[in-house]
Structures are given as C-alpha cells and as structure tokens.
Amino acid sequence: MVTHIFDSTLRDGAQAEGISFLVNDKIKIAKALDELGIDFIEAGNPGSNPKDLEFFQEAKRLKWNHSKLVAFGSTRRCNEKAEFDANVIALLAAETEYVCIFGKSWDFHVERIIHTTKEENLNMIFDTIQYLKQQGKNVFFDAEHFFDGYKANKEYALKTIQTAENAGAECIVLCDTNGGTFPDEIVEIIKEVKKEIKTPLGIHAHNDSGMAISVSVMAVLAGCEQVQGTFLGYGERCGNANLSAIIANLELKRGYRCLPHGNISKLTATAHLIAEISNFELGDTLPYVGRSAFAHKAGMHIDGVYKDSKSFEHISPETVGNERKFLISEVAGKSTVLAKIQKIYPEIAKNDPKLEEIISIIKDLEYGGYQFEGADASFELIVHKALKKFNPYFSVENFKIIGEGPSELEQYSASAIIVVKVEGEIEVTAANGNGPVDALNKALRKAIGRFYPVLNEVRLADYKVRILDGKESATAATTRVIIESTDDKTSWSTVGVSKDIIEASFKAIIDSIDYKLFKEKM
C-alpha cells in the first residue's frame, strides 16, 4: 500500500507565527525534503508574493530527484474568466507540472465570506480546474472547510467536490481547515464521500483540537491516498498535521509505503535540519524525531530497556535515525549510569569498582546542586576523569572581573583578566564583554586559542540559570548554570554550580571547552 505525502512546509508552514523564509531557506528545505523522498512539495503561492515566484524561477534550474514541486493558488475570482485571472496566470508562470488550488465547500463561506452565489462558486471550481487542465497541468483540488461544510450542508459540500471531479482533478483533498473535527467523524464522512466520488481522495488537517495526526492517519485508513501537512507541524494558529509523525506511524505501524525504501532512517536528521533552517527549536518531546522521544529517566524503565528495549520503547530509535538517551538524575539507578558509561566505554561491567566510584562522585555532586540530566558532556568528563582517560589541556590559575554600569556610549559592560597555564606556559590575557560571563569566556579563549585553534569553531547556543535555594539564601543562593555549545556540526551541554553565578557559569564554560578538546583528540 502506498500513501502519497504532500508537504506544505514552504506554504502553509510559512504562515506560522515567527517564520519568515528567505528564498534560499526555501530551496534548502525543499532539497532536504527531496532527499528524504517526499512525493509533493507545495512550495508557495506565486500569485500572492514575489518571493514565491522567485523560488519557482530558481527551482527550475535545479535537479529534483524524487519530489514534484507544486504551485498553490485559489480558484478564479467571482464573475471572471479563468484565463484572465491574475492568480491563475501566476500559477502558470510557476511552470510546475502540478498545481493545487483551493475552493470553497462550505456554503457559509460562499455566501458570507466571498459574497457570491453557490452556483457561481461551483462555476469558479469547474472553470479553474478545466482551464488548468487544458494548459497541461495536473490539478489537486483542496476542498477548503470540507468537513464543516459537510456537517452544515451535506448536499452542497458533495456538489463542490463532484464539480472538481467532473472538471478533471487528479486528487480531491478534504480539508479540516478549522481543525475541529474528531477522527471518528472524519472516518464516517470519508466513507460516505467514497460512495459518491471515484477520484482519489486526500486529507488536509489542522491541529486546533490537537488531533491533526490522528485525523490524518485515520483518514488514510478510511481510504485517503494523499496526506497533506507540514514536516514538523508548523502552521497558522495551532499548526498543521505533523508529517514526520504521520509518515512514521503509517510506514512503521500500518505497512504503508510513504518514502522510498530505507529512507525512514533519515527522518530525524531531516527534522533537525528543517528546524534549524526555520530558526525554530525542535521540540524535545516530538514523537519519533524529538531529542527526548527515546529518553529514559526512571530507574525501573532504564533497567527494562537495558535488558530488552521493547519493554519501554514502541520502536527502535535507530529506525528513524534517532538515538536512545539515559538521563542521569536522582531517580536513576545503577543501570542508568552503567548504560551511559557503556556508550563510551563498552568494556565497563556491572561489577567494576570504577562504576561505584563514578556513582559516588555523581551523588556527591548532585547533593551539591549539580544536575546531569541536561548536561551529558559534563557527565562524560566525569567518566573520562574517573577512568584516568583525561589529561587537562589547561588550568585557570586566577581571574579577575571588572564591572561597570552600562552607559549609552559604552560598548561593553565588563572586563576580565585571566591567568592560564597551558602546555607549560603561563598566559595572561584580558578581554571586554557584554557582562562578566561573556568577558571571561572571551578572555579564556584568547588565552588558549593559539594553542587550540579548533575552539574558533565553538559558540554558545543557549544559557540557562536556575536558583536552587533562593528562599533561604536570597542573593547568596546556590546557582546552577547549564550551557549548550555548538560547532554547527554537533551540540553538547555542560553544567556548573556555585553560590557565585559567575563561577558557576565559568565552570560550565571550562567543561564545554574541555569536552570539545577531548573529542578532537579521540
């Protein structure tokens, strides 16, 4: 069984709050979707803005291995010929083999929103599809608000898609545009539609009631052959159906072929790439592709997974290109620590005395406020040091911070002087920064940078501060700082704890640099 995947990240996804794709961004995402093996990429509405038209012009010069690009637009305007309609002309200018047009299927929208008659709306659907077919295009018809329209006026909603069928649409896509229809309603309506329509059906769901994935999967099981959505669920309001989850659900759980053979293993990497280009943080708890999708924290769960992964995992994470994570925390047991250590040093056994030593170190640190759940790099450094695998690359002998109140004329608000011993040499450097932590970070890099130029690749990606006992100690409270660093190829997190927020931050920064240097030497 085959289900055709229709991705609208570049069109419907671009309507999400906070997203604004450049043409180059759209090209990168489209190429990633093509590499994954998505059947159709709805790349924009050439009639709505010059940027989308520019994309189609640029895309014509590129090679597409699998995906078909689709230009999106609406039916012709009321009382106007299709061949003279500006939107239809723009669709043709995109020069794509496939076009997707939307039209009204809810009589409420016909009469109250676009202010025309129900008969003219049917003419608009028929004329537009027929004209595009005459121009050699394959046409998908999105029946906007179909399910609301069906519940309000079944006869008219059916008439709109029958008109699209008679005009020659290749696929008729039933849209839950307001995202409020339950999966059981969707299934029943699709069953009724299939009695009247012989053209292949598709589903286009929005997530306003949190059921877009369920709606889409159930629609396929009820007979829809095309699924529309956005790869990570981006979209207006609460978003669209999340294709990354839908693809995995259909292919791994129901035996539908959604991607070329073997490409399901690229799912997670594609998700991370699209999130990065979109400048949206990938949700940790997203099914299948999130960083926490296969993360285990409770000791009993970890012990079960360690013995047999299917005890607490519905699929193997490697199937979708993800990985298993064991989280170090106060509820984690010996099996948790062992499992994490064995990812680095497989030879460590359960009865190894070094395991008890590492557990003791972690418990002492956690008692003092450390948390390794979100700081895997700091945990790894503890293991390397306990197993005598780590030799320090530098040592900070002393540092001093000079802070001043910012003024409109000052570019920096703090300075740092640092004394570092590196490869037997003493380096004394100073740097300015936007705050004491930034100044210290710059001064340290300046001091050791000539010895380790690889550090030029590293930058701070995130910085989180947690006050651990603020009620008791007020401004002298113990502070935990977790920083995320990246070299644009991979990311790692480190932690520092102190009653001094600058010292806590500096500990995390030193761990980050140590981790990067150790990985480079491995």
What is this structure, in a nutshell?
With 522 residues, this protein is α/β, with parallel strands linked by helices. The protein has helices at 23-36, 50-59, 86-93, 107-112, 118-134, 146-152, 154-167, 183-196, 212-221, 243-253, 267-278, 299-307, 334-344, 353-367, 376-386, 436-448, 470-473, 501-521, and strands at 4-7, 40-44, 68-74, 98-104, 138-144, 171-176, 201-205, 226-229, 295-296, 325-326, 395-403, 414-422, 425-433, 459-467, 479-486, 491-498. It folds into three domains: 4-260, Alpha-Beta Barrel (TIM Barrel), CATH 3.20.20; 295-386, no CATH class; 395-521, Alpha-isopropylmalate synthase LeuA, regulatory domain (Double Stranded RNA Binding Domain, 2-Layer Sandwich).
